[in-house]
Inverse folding.
């Protein structure tokens, strides 16, 4: 089997318009693993002035997409669950670390951790991705 072109895949992943809208910065993309950071500002807050749960989920999900598509073929989420463990607190950014922890045929299982700048766990997610054989360029 050919080794995936991680750099080509990473360039496509980094062009994600929704992630860019949120300010997500992909720090690391390697096969089955991705780390991203999202600097926080007023667009990430809810009506109570707290980081919106949807922003936390979007960071995890965007990073999940990077990890799942890092091998250069299209993959899509088929299930994701999230547990919010603690409020992020007064933090300048959140960071997500996502790793593939199992593969079963075309299914890949992933664990997502979201932490604040102090390294405290804010949320943990698990999810399944369906891996196709179609290249990202299509």
């Amino acid at each position: 089997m050919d080794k995936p072109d991680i750099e080509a895949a990473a360039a496509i992943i980094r062009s994600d318009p929704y992630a860019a809208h949120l300010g997500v910065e992909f720090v690391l993309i390697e096969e089955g693993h991705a780390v991203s950071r999202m600097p926080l500002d007023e667009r990430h807050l809810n009506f109570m002035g707290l980081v919106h749960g949807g922003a936390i989920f979007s960071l995890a999900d965007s990073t999940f997409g990077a990890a799942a598509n890092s091998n250069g073929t299209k993959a899509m989420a088929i299930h994701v669950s999230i547990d919010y463990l603690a409020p992020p607190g007064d933090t300048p950014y959140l960071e997500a670390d996502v790793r593939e922890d199992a593969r079963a045929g075309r299914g890949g299982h992933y664990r997502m951790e979201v932490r604040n700048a102090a390294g405290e766990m804010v949320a943990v997610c698990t999810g399944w991705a369906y891996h196709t054989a179609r290249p990202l360029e299509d």
User: Anything to note?
Assistant: The CA atoms of residues 33 and 67 lie 5 Å apart. The beta strands are 25-30, 33-39, 73-84, 93-104, 107-116, 121-135. The helical segments are 6-14, 17-22, 53-69. Residues 6-135 form a domain with the Thiol Ester Dehydrase; Chain A fold (CATH 3.10.129.10).
